[in-house]
Amino acid sequence: MKLVCIIEKKIPALREPILRFARRFEGVEVIESLWDDPSEADVTAVIRRIEKNGPANEPVLQGFIEHKDAELLAGSFCPFSAQGMDVFDNLRIIGVMRAGLENIDVRAASERGIAVVNASGRNADAVSDFAIAMLLAEARNIARAHHSIVGGGWQVDFASSATTPDMRGKTVGLFGFGAIGKALAEKLGGFHINLMVYDPYIEQESVAAFGGKLVDKETLFKESDFISVHARLTDENQRTIGKAEFSLMKKSAYFINTARAGLVDYDALYAALAEKRIAGAALDVFDNEPLPVDDRFRKLDNVTLTTHRAGATLDAANNSPRLVFERMRNLIAGSAMEGLVNPQVLDDPKFKAWQKKAKETLDL
Hints:
By secondary structure, the chain is an alpha/beta fold. Helices cover 35% and strands 15% of the residues. The chain is built from 14 helices and twelve strands. It has helices at 15-22, 43-53, 62-66, 82-85, 106-111, 124-139, 142-150, 179-188, 204-208, 217-223, 243-248, 266-274, 314-333, 349-361; strands spanning 2-8, 29-35, 72-75, 93-96, 115-118, 171-175, 194-198, 212-214, 226-229, 254-257, 280-283, 303-305. Helix 1 (15-22) packs parallel to helix 13 (314-333) and helix 6 packs across helix 8 (179-188). It is globular, with a radius of gyration of 22 Å.
């Protein structure tokens, strides 16, 4: 059985952990194949383009064509399109070493009897740590004070100085309560805050386990002192946070986004910040990355900006391939379905027959 690992040429740091964990998949031949887009010098531009437009407009990878007999395929940010899947003779599992699925056509995979496994939860600690850091950096003017000192100054008065808050007793609203939201809720417990959650896909019991309250969107924006976004971006929730939501926020409230820029109307957010209708924001994601030199957000005095680094830790990089290859193996063995994005494929006759044979071949 052949497993093709697509290695992003412009992200060499991913190569070692991907191949190391892939080679722990006993009984499987591991093939390394490089992917690159020579038309773009910056890999983030390629990734954002695929996330925005989907995989269909990207060329089929040469590695697919060269290894069309592969039954297992894994990659991080490369495009997994319907036309790419059609290259293979008997592809049955695609492993995506990230939580987002913007670069894979999941519907096409399901229609072809191909299971999709992702690394959901891989960076829950990394992003939740970062969200807390961003919240504190903005509310306490940490980054701005540092910038003042290294620039030769000693600034002590900032736009929000008159209302700089403690955390204790404040209400933190989480927009989305998946793995990252839950990790953040657990860590926030030490600050003795009040927790509110908006997530239409969960029940009150799951929030109550963290001492929180499940509320509607209007209540979250109206009553929170801090709002941190942790929802997955879908076709249904594009720009779901906009003028109406920001108009509900307290003038002393802060907005943190370490999830996806597409969830937020950044025009409305900019207006709320520029007009001081909210106290501040901390942003790790943007509609255009890298952020243009003359971008309007750079000129604000009540926003903390970072370069899409929330999930970028060594541990998260190792977690991605470890989780994906463990989940692929478990799926074949039928022992666990964690990370399986399209469970309906389990009823596909082609997949069922292949799974039975693969389980026997690998002696699982």
